[in-house]
Amino acid sequence: MTTAERSAGLSVRDADPSDFHALVRLWHAGWTDAHAEIVPTTLARLRTLDDFSTRMRAMYGSVRVIGPVGAPIGFHAIKADELDQFYITARARGTGAAELLLRDAETRLAAAGTRIAWLACAIGNERAARFYEKHGWRRSGIVTHHPDTPEGPFALQVWRYEKRLMEDAG
Q: What is the pTM of this model?
């Protein structure tokens, strides 16, 4: 079965109010799975369910999801020219849902006029790095990113990935 066949019937949509709590749990579980062992313990300690709820509430207007209303299996959020958040449930891996979700994010970024999109990937998150690289994103270097925490921005070294979405005019 091809990826397209596995993802048949899935579509990306705006987050519904009934998705909120499921998205918070999805994000917390996904972040813990991918990051808890590779980021500084100070940051891991700050990433509580309440923290994810607060942060989800702040970005909810920009959240796009894939999966049934009330039971999403993935989401993305965009902030200016950045793919700010991108998560998929473990059970949805390999179904094509992540590819559809990424394509939606790239389309939205391009429609907003973004020529080169970027994202921050935790150093050591090899699964995510392979996924982004498979879909045309290129690691441009290591930068200091400042994700929000309950104690304020946290300085974190990350891999910066970029993807050209539109050619320069002229």
A: 0.92
